[in-house]
Amino acid sequence: MRLLRSTDLALRVLMRLAVADATPTTRQVAADMDVPYTHAAKVVAELQHLGLVDARRGRGGGLALTERGRTASVGAVVRTFEGEGDVVDCEGTQGTPACPLRSACRLRGALRGAQEAFFASLDPVTIADIVGEPTGPLLLGISRGPGPV
User: Fold this and answer.
1) What is the C-alpha separation between 116 and 19, in angstroms, rounded?
2) How far is the C-alpha of 39 from the C-alpha of 110, rounded, in Å?
3) CA angle 42, 89, 38 (to 5 degrees)
4) Is 119 helix (H, G, I), strand (E, B) or coil?
5) Phi, psi at residue 53, to the nearest 5°?
6) How far apart are CA 34 and CA 51, in angstroms?
7) Which residues contact 51 (CB under 8 A, 6 or more apart)?
């Protein structure tokens, strides 16, 4: 299974904020993660809507991870950003023709089971769990950029 770019970025933003020693702006986080600002802003807005990130505008503003964000299940975050859709588009809803085997196919159920097993394996893992050594210090190093030359 391959995660959507927004799911990947949401997890990386949460990880970055989990080790933050300040309140970076969305623009700073986008630069740290080497992603377009507009993409980061959409992800941050969704994380804020979910109550995982606190975003404040203006002087002294920035992003901070909420307690709910720190204890959030990685599985729940992935489910939210990935959606509840099937791994394959058997019904032809995304501009492709419907599969002629859909009425008698067992593959769809097997893939759904695999998808649920993937999510379930991430459910007990929290954001706090994934920023321990050696990840946390590396994230801090990325956010500070290269040192003096």
Assistant:
1) 29
2) 33
3) 10
4) helix
5) -130, 140
6) 24
7) 66, 68, 69
pLDDT number for residue 140:
66
pLDDT for position 149: 34
Per-residue pLDDT at 39: 96
pTM attached to this predicted model? 0.83
What's at 137, amino acid-wise?
P
C-alpha distance from residue 69 to each of 40, 99, 139 (Å): 17, 40, 17
Interatomic CA distance for residues 136 and 122, integer angstroms: 19
Contact 124, 73 (CB under 8 A): yes
Q: Are 53 and 63 in contact (CB under 8 A)?
A: yes
Alpha-carbon distance values, 148 to 32, 83, 92, 138 (Å):
17, 43, 54, 17
Is residue 86 classed exposed, middle or buried when 0-12, 13-18 and 19+ CB atoms within 10 A define those classes? middle
Under DSSP, the state recorded for 130 is G
d(CA 120, CA 127): 15
Could you tell me the mean pLDDT of each successive run of 10 residues in the chain, 149 residues long?
Answer: 91 92 89 92 96 88 93 95 81 78 83 91 95 73 49
